[in-house]
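Marked as duplicate of an earlier ticket. Keeping the data here for the record.
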Amino acid sequence: MTRRNELKNLFRATVGVLLLATASALAENNLKFGKPDCPGRLLDKQFFVICYSPEHKIPIWVGYALTAADLDGPATRTNNFRADPALPADERSRPKDYSKSGYDQGHMAPAEDFTRSIQAMSTTFLLSNMAPQRPGLNRNRWKQLENAGRRVAKSQGSVWLFTGSIFIGNKPIQEIGADKVAVPTHFYKVILCVHPDGTKEMFASVMPNIAKLQTGLGKYATSVDNVEQLTGLDFFSALSESEQKSLESKVGSLP
């Protein structure tokens, strides 16, 4: 092997190690304040982390960090909805499952939170990041909730979010498409905001998956404690017990 080829191989190996280290650092930061249990497949998408249900073919939760700087990127919406190739064929949902179903392909990690790069934006359009949402929810109150999360990140600098699906009640789970994608009865979002002075604040919302919702985000505000009771998940478990007790019991008002 020539000296030139040796240097090329060394460079490639070094770049590979750096990329792996960067991805690991990003994943660690996304879950900096704790990882809820994942009774499914854990998918590290670098920009966000998905706990995916192979049975229901939707996310149980999606978690990521968001900063003000992340929202200043140049990427525009890609709309390249597609099955996730990281999943076995029998565990994937596909765009045709949603076609003429009466449901939108609802992002759990919203596209507008990932304008930092085309790669980040495109990754949000993997269907492993989607769940069936009524258009009246997805395009109205849910969109307002996502906008509110971005406002907190822009004004305060750093937030950590978990978003996912809930099945409430004893009725059989509704499914759409040939792949039998489960339709959640409700969706939740929990947000941990770390203010510039280091103080923390939490927000939480639960919305029913219905066509028409009442006006105002305040109607759906709740505590993180309540979301934990509904989901059986433990959010932000890396915080001290005293911080969890204090922050998770409060019902915060999103801007």
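See parent ticket for discussion. The two ends are 62 Å apart (CA to CA).
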